[in-house]
């Protein structure tokens, strides 16, 4: 049984916010952390601090064992082999790693296909790849609400035969859950490299990378209950072997002479320098915590929260919702015509509501929707209906203030 009262007690920041009369509705930007994750970080630096790999002493060996155990936990969580998971700083670095590593395999005139829903992190690295190689960036179409046009997109993939297809599993700006499996299947029939941005989906959808059948999948720990500055790249092993190295230095080498260097096989090939050991262990603790929760109950609870929020917002004639309201991870993005999102978010903050405003690192999407930004309310399973009621009361007061 999904016990929301017990779950909320696991997140110390929620109690702190409650004392300060603040409701946190910004989990798409970063999730709150359970006490177990915080304890792991404290314990490592207080009692277990040592560098990983090559150390002969017990402390280093213990840290190395925990570090690789963390890789195994996260690998099981997304259903990949241990040697297919590369530690990075987050989804952004992971995409950059792939885009740079693919350089020798992309040529002038090749199509790199993304969507208009992408975060800048899944646009700019591909633009740079196009500049290096002469490739061309194209985008999958969306409708006036910001929902991907599935039929037209599949037809465009067939027509363009892209060399790369890079698409988000769920939109950070609107919360749309994308039918990525359909697109991947079509693209792979045409020989495309496929990458899925799972920054928003990892927490809410618990994706299985083998079922998605993508070549690459990227994610960030901090959006999935873990620490900031940590993330990962899943890559099919043959794809990781094929990629050029992204950064060079210690740890990722087999042999170095003055004349040349031999690199380790993946994933070590991409893990140069001392990693964020504490962050990786903290991320493993976040995965441990999530594994105590039934994923179907969690998803059903979040869907119920989302439906409750939608129903409450339907009473406001001024509020215009954007995005896919039928397939959504629990994010509501809205505008009020004639009002700037910054002003609305500021007034809501004065009422104790923490939401996000602006273009959400998705300027091409905002341009396509002809808006200068939105107010984004993003839910997670540690929210409850009281949070939504408090937000609705604050929104009512805000609208009365600007009327």
Mean pLDDT: 96
Compute the number of strand runs.
15
Strand order of the largest sheet: 2-8-7-6-5-3-4
State the major sheet: 7 strands, mixed
Output the radius of gyration.
22 Å
Termini separation = 44 Å
Give the low-confidence spans. Answer: none
Our estimate of the beta-strand percent is 15-25%
SS-based class: alpha/beta
Helix content: 40-55%
- What quaternary form is this? single chain
Instruction: Tell me, briefly, the overall form.
Output: globular
Helices, by number, come to: 16
Sum up the structure in keywords.
globular; 4-stranded antiparallel β-sheet; 7-stranded mixed β-sheet; 16% strand; alpha/beta; 403 residues
Give an overview in words:
The longest helix has 21 residues, at 58-78. Strands 2-8-7-6-5-3-4 form a 7-stranded mixed sheet, with helices on both faces. With 403 residues, it is α/β, with parallel strands linked by helices. The chain has 16 helices and 15 strands. The protein has helices at 4-9, 12-19, 35-48, 58-78, 91-101, 124-133, 150-160, 180-189, 201-205, 209-212, 237-242, 277-291, 295-313, 341-350, 363-369, 385-402, and strands at 23-24, 85-88, 111-115, 136-140, 164-168, 193-197, 216-220, 231-235, 253-256, 261-263, 319-322, 331-336, 353-354, 356-358, 374-378.
């Amino acid at each position: 049984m999904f016990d929301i009262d017990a779950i909320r007690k696991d997140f110390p920041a929620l109690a702190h916010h409650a004392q300060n009369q603040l409701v946190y509705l910004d989990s798409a930007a970063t999730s709150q952390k359970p006490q177990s994750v915080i304890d792991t970080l404290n314990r490592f630096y207080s009692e277990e601090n040592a560098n990983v790999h090559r150390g002969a002493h017990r402390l280093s060996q213990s840290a190395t064992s925990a570090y690789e155990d963390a890789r195994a936990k996260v690998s099981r969580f997304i259903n990949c082999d241990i040697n297919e998971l590369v530690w990075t700083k987050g989804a952004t670095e992971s995409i950059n790693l792939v885009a740079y590593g693919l350089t020798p395999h992309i040529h002038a005139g090749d199509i790199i296909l993304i969507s208009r829903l992408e975060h800048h992190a899944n646009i700019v690295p591909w633009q740079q790849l196009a500049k290096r190689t002469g490739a061309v960036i194209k985008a999958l179409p969306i409708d006036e609400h910001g929902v991907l046009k599935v039929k037209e997109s599949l037809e465009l993939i067939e027509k363009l035969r892209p060399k790369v297809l890079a698409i988000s599993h769920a939109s950070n700006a609107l919360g749309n859950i994308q039918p990525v499996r359909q697109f991947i299947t079509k693209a792979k029939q045409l020989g495309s490299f496929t990458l899925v941005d799972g920054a928003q989906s990892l927490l809410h959808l618990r994706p299985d990378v083998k079922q998605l059948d993508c070549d690459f999948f990227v994610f960030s720990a901090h959006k999935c209950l873990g620490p900031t500055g940590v993330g990962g790249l899943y890559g099919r092993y043959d794809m990781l072997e094929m990629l050029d190295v992204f950064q060079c230095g210690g740890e990722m080498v087999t042999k170095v002479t003055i004349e040349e260097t031999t690199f380790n096989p993946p994933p070590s090939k991409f893990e140069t320098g001392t990693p964020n050991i504490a962050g990786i262990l903290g991320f493993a603790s976040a995965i441990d915590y999530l594994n105590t929760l039934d994923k179907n109950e969690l998803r059903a609870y979040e869907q119920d929260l989302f439906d409750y929020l939608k129903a409450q917002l339907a009473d406001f004639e001024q509020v215009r919702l954007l995005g896919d309201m039928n397939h959504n991870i629990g994010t509501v993005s809205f505008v009020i015509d004639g009002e700037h999102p910054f002003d609305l978010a500021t007034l809501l903050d004065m009422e104790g509501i923490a939401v996000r405003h602006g273009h959400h690192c998705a300027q091409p999407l905002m341009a396509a929707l002809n808006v200068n930004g939105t107010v984004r309310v993003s839910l997670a399973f540690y929210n409850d209906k009281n949070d939504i009621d408090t937000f609705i009361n604050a929104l009512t007061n805000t609208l009365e203030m600007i009327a």
